Predict the 3D structure of the following.
Amino acid sequence: MKAAVLREVDRPLEVEDVEIDRPGPREVLIRTGATGVCHSDLHFVEGKYSIPMPAVLGHEAAGTIEAVGDQVAYVKPGDRVITCLSVFCGHCDRCLSGRPALCRRPDVDRSSSEPPRLHQGQDRITQMAQLGSFAEQMLVHEHAVVKVDDDLPFEQLALIGCGVTTGVGAVLNTAKIEPGSTVAVVGCGGVGLNCIQGAVIAGALRIIAIDSVETKLTMAREFGATDVIDASGGGVVEKVRDLTGGGL
């Protein structure tokens, strides 16, 4: 298959031929339908995060199941799926206590004694986040996918894999916004817009979007912001206090 391979920091990705193995137990093979480019991918390219190279980046994706390995019961060939950034084993202490995002991951990747999922000849190729979506296909653990309906295009579904879940999760799971709350979202990029969506879902009564780009503020209103503040002129804190009668 073709894949965009990172070989050196601060160098362009190169589209190369990469060999992908067949699905093993509890693994699924996905035909990539669409993938997003997250800023985290750029951090790896720039060397701000480290990763064994060569590597196939990409972790925000959607596609179609092409084949499944033994013991896979959740999906079948033809199913449409979103990939999950945080793969979980389902049976470690953290998974069993309701914290799968903190999974110890004892068996969701292949061991060093097993054939690699991706390789070029004898050279193992790293999958970013055990996904590697900058490729025509992905070979992943079955817990790295979520089945979805057929009525949305892959270009939209792919964004749920990281940007949407990061923003919505920050509101629901970290900030724990309650119904009737007033919320300020600073920065209305991909994650910020989904913080706004999360605040809507949580029942926030007032959602203040803050950014210096007019088009982003327009989108913020479309996503559910009740008020917007243009930060390009400064005085943001005072404007928030004026809107809220003293602050959040």
